[in-house]
Design a protein that fits this description.
Distance between the termini: 67 Å
Number of helices: 11
Strand content: under 5%
Helix content: 40-55%
Number of domains: 2
Structural class: mainly alpha
Number of strands: 0
Bound molecules: heme C
Length: about 220
């Protein structure tokens, strides 16, 4: 019988298959790694806003409480972003002619709200509720980081399923007294777990069900 393929073809075929398998598993590894990277979750990314609003200045130096601007955070699912009027309560008096504030004045003149770009955003198939967390004593910084130091807002935490579940399995070391939820400088005065366990009991927080798929995917 005549040989159609050269003897070496077999070796090439094996080598080719090996390369293919190595390539595929390598690709899978890259995909899995990328899945939890900052690139995928958008962590530490600054987005362009209609004007350069600084939390470091307003929440940090001027010490305006988060709830002055995010007024629904304790009562609703959404924290809410402030309307132009909230900014104008000060900026009709201070920095009235600053160029950077022109978009704010334009918004007031034309009764057109500013279109802030969202930084922390979950996919639509996930249910989240701010009020429940804030009233359980979970501080803003647990999920949003040191906002009082951010010149421009960025996502400091991945806010992915892994992060939600890690806390839902064991929330105690993440809890604090209710009057400290917006305090970015808060430090526990006693062992954090011991304090947390006590707060769990006092607030009747039950972790049963917190990791059920239907809690966040309804
Ligand atoms: C347990 C985690 C967690 C805590 C605690 C938390 N947030 Fe959030 N926050 C989120 C998530 C997740 C989103 C995105 C929600 C979405 O897209 O549905 C978000 C979105 C926001 C938004 C954007 C828009 C909106 O109306 O919801 C603001 C503003 C905000 N948070 C402010 C705050 C403030 C202020 C506090 C503290 C009083 C706080 N958050 C506490 C997780 C948290
Ligand atoms: C409680 C008062 C108050 C409120 C409310 C307020 N600001 Fe300011 N803002 C100030 C003061 C004071 C300055 C700084 C003046 C200075 O630097 O001496 C300032 C400065 C600024 C600047 C200049 C850049 C900087 O940060 O130094 C921008 C932009 C700005 N504010 C935007 C806003 C926007 C947008 C809102 C509403 C979401 C808002 N401010 C709400 C008091 C306020
Ligand atoms: C003077 C008003 C003001 C105060 C005070 C303020 N914020 Fe904001 N916040 C804004 C505005 C305006 C935006 C939208 C622009 C931006 O992302 O910077 C915003 C955006 C955010 C976002 C991003 C939400 C998203 O998904 O886009 C978070 C998180 C947030 N604020 C948390 C806080 C926390 C925590 C505090 C208190 C430490 C606080 N803010 C205090 C006005 C304020
Ligand atoms: C740092 C801790 C912490 C993180 C992070 C956290 N949670 Fe929670 N979550 C809690 C606690 C504590 C409760 C229970 C509150 C109670 O029972 O009073 C809760 C309750 C809930 C509930 C139940 C609300 C209800 O009405 O039944 C939902 C839904 C929820 N969380 C969604 C999320 C999602 C989605 C994420 C991630 C984006 C998340 N949580 C991240 C601590 C956390
Ligand atoms: C405490 C809240 C929470 C619970 C409980 C939860 N999830 Fe999620 N899940 C999330 C969040 C937030 C996201 C979106 C962010 C991300 O991609 O991680 C998500 C994303 C997903 C995705 C899409 C993943 C992707 O890469 O696009 C699937 C599938 C999923 N969840 C399945 C489940 C299943 C199955 C369960 C029950 C075993 C479950 N989840 C329980 C919060 C939760």
């Amino acid at each position: 019988m005549t040989q159609i393929f050269r003897r070496s073809a077999d070796t090439w075929l094996r080598a080719g298959l090996l390369l293919l398998i190595a390539g595929l598993s390598g690709g899978l590894l890259v995909a899995l790694t990328l899945d939890s990277t900052d690139y995928r979750t958008g962590r530490n990314w600054v987005v362009e806003q209609p004007l350069p609003f600084s939390h470091a200045h307003h929440a940090g130096e001027l010490k305006i409480d988060c709830r002055y601007c995010h007024s629904a955070v304790q009562s609703s699912a959404m924290a809410s972003l402030p309307p132009t009027e909230t900014c104008m309560s000060c900026h009709s008096q201070v920095w009235t002619n600053a160029d950077v504030l022109e978009p704010l004045r334009k918004s007031l003149r034309e009764l057109e709200p500013l279109h802030w770009q969202r930084v922390a955003k979950l996919p639509d198939y996930v249910y989240f509720h701010h009020g429940v967390h804030v009233n359980a004593g979970v501080g803003c910084s647990e999920c949003h980081g040191q906002v009082d130091r951010m010149q421009l807002m960025f996502k400091a935490q991945p806010l992915n399923m892994g992060q939600c579940l890690a806390c839902h399995r064991d929330p105690a070391p993440h809890l604090r007294p209710l009057e400290q939820v917006t305090n970015m400088q808060w430090k526990p005065s006693e062992d954090r777990r011991r304090l947390g366990e006590r707060l769990m009991t006092a607030r009747h927080i039950d972790t049963r069900g917190l990791t059920d798929c239907g809690t966040c995917h309804r």
